[in-house]
């Protein structure tokens, strides 16, 4: 090729690149962008197939994008998780910063039998493949099968330039997917978040059967107060894992600090109720607890917000019943008939503290009260963790509507207010 021919080809490549980018970047999605790009290349160079392979985290190559000419069978679904060992020849060539060119497949039948065996059944007679590199590492390759006659030199030069744009597009796509994931998932648990629910809510209407599980982690505030937020985070993750045991294949949303919601779509009522029963059994055998409410209906009969509200009401009822039966300091259910003895002990302890305060006007009450300031938002209290009885300041009693300055199980009652 003489100088004039080379200069003419350079001009042509520049024109083709500009046309290709103009065509591809007009798409609204990354899938559309790559579809347009590969389609342009395939039609421009009269190829049978154009494709992009990407290196995955498990160190294998997968065909992620593909264009096929009319009458050519797609191969993408069959070319997933290809071991690097099967492409060792290609990888060695890529590391030397050279493309892989096969002008005639039969010429590699004896020198590279494994590659020949993989390409022959696909109807490949010739191909050109160029590496995709990022920061000195091979992250994939861009290739074409059976290009038009005498198109190989132009394709190689074009791919050499286009590869940079493809890598840039792949990075932008990955960043976009990452941002989308972060905006739709809870970072602590990996559950879906409210943003994801708001989008899903728009899709759920009409003749769809939906089951709702609404859960609230009981005692989270107490866990945070007594053991720190790291312990609270651990409790949240454990409770999410409990839900995943039975509903791992469904949509699980973290709706708030201690609330989760499961949406089961197109699930029959009998199956939904059975899964709920098994979930409650799982919860009962754990040292952490989730108050649960459930509801099921066809959305033609009950709209989604009403269905959720129904499950939420049942959850609050279950939560209230649970708090009445729990001794938070021991962290396990009271087993009745010992309840009566526990209540008696609690009443005696409250009366003893009240009697002490009456008989000792210079005791702890005035000491605590002396530290409060009028109209101050600061609330002070002191308590005995063994008996779970607390003395609170007057401003705290008034602010939260307590009947007395002596309060049993203050943190639980405070949380409810």
How would the blueprint of this fold be written?
Elements lengths: L2 H22 L5 H15 L4 E7 L4 E9 L13 E2 L4 H8 L4 E3 L10 H7 L7 E8 L2 E9 L6 H33 L9 H8 L7 E9 L2 H8 L1 H19 L3 E4 L4 E7 L3 H16 L5 E9 L5 H22 E2 L4 E2 L4 H22 L4 H6 L11 E4 L4 E4 L1 H7 L5 E3 L1 H7 L1
Antiparallel strand pairs: 1-2, 1-6, 2-3, 4-5, 5-6, 7-9, 7-10, 8-9, 11-12, 13-14, 14-15
Q: Summarize this, please?
A:
By secondary structure, this protein is of the alpha+beta class. It is built from 14 helices and 15 strands.
Please tag this protein with its features:
417 residues; four-stranded antiparallel sheet; 14 helices; alpha+beta; elongated
- What structural class do helix, strand and pairing data support? alpha+beta
Order of the strands making up the biggest sheet: 3-2-1-6-5-4
In whole angstroms, how far apart are the ends? 85 Å
> What proportion of the residues is helical, as a percent range?
40-55%
Order of helices and strands: HHEEEHEHEEHHEHHEEHEHEEHHEEHEH
| Total beta strand runs | 15
Residue fraction in strands: 15-25%
Taking all Cα atoms into account, the compactness measure Rg is 34 Å
User: Based on CA inertia axes, which overall geometry fits?
Assistant: elongated
> What is the typical, i.e. mean, pLDDT?
84
Described by strand count, sense and barrel closure, the largest sheet is: 6 strands, antiparallel
Continuous helix count: 14
Low-confidence stretches: 1-10, 328-346
């Amino acid at each position: 090729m003489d100088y004039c021919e080379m200069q003419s080809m350079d001009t042509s490549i520049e024109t083709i690149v500009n046309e290709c980018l103009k065509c591809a970047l007009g798409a609204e999605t990354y899938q559309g962008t790559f579809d347009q790009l590969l389609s342009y290349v395939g039609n421009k160079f009269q190829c049978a197939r154009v494709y992009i392979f990407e290196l995955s985290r498990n160190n294998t190559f997968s065909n992620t994008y593909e264009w096929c000419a009319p009458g050519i069978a797609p191969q993408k679904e069959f070319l997933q998780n290809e071991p690097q060992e099967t492409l060792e020849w290609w990888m060695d060539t890529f590391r030397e910063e050279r493309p892989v060119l096969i002008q005639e497949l039969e010429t590699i039948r004896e020198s590279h039998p494994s590659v020949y065996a993989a390409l022959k059944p696909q109807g490949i007679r010739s191909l050109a493949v160029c590496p995709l590199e990022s920061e000195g590492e091979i992250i994939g390759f861009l290739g074409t099968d059976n290009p038009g006659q005498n198109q190989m030199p132009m394709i190689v030069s074009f791919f050499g330039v286009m590869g940079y744009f493809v890598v840039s597009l792949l990075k932008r796509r990955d960043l976009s997917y990452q941002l989308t994931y972060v905006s739709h998932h809870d970072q602590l648990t990996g559950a879906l978040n409210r943003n994801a629910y708001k989008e899903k809510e728009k899709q759920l209407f009409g003749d769809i059967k939906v089951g709702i599980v609404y859960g609230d982690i009981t005692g989270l505030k107490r866990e945070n107060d007594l053991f720190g937020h790291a312990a609270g985070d651990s409790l949240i993750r454990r409770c999410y894992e409990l839900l995943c045991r039975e509903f791992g294949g469904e949509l699980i949303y973290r709706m708030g600090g201690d609330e989760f919601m499961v949406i089961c779509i197109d699930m029959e009522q009998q199956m939904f109720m059975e899964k709920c029963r098994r979930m409650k059994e799982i919860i009962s055998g754990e040292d952490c607890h989730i108050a649960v409410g459930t509801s099921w209906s066809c959305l033609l009969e009950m709209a989604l917000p009403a269905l959720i509200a129904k499950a939420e009401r049942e959850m609050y009822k279950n939560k209230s019943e649970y708090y009445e039966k729990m001794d938070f300091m021991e962290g396990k259910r009271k087993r009745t008939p010992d309840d009566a003895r526990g209540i008696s002990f609690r009443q005696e302890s409250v009366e003893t503290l009240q009697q002490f305060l009456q008989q000792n006007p210079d005791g702890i009450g005035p000491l605590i009260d002396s530290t409060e300031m009028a109209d101050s938002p600061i609330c002070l209290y002191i308590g005995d963790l063994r008996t779970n009885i607390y003395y609170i300041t007057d401003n705290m009693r008034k602010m939260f509507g307590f009947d007395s300055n002596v309060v049993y199980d203050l943190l639980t009652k405070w949380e409810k207010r």
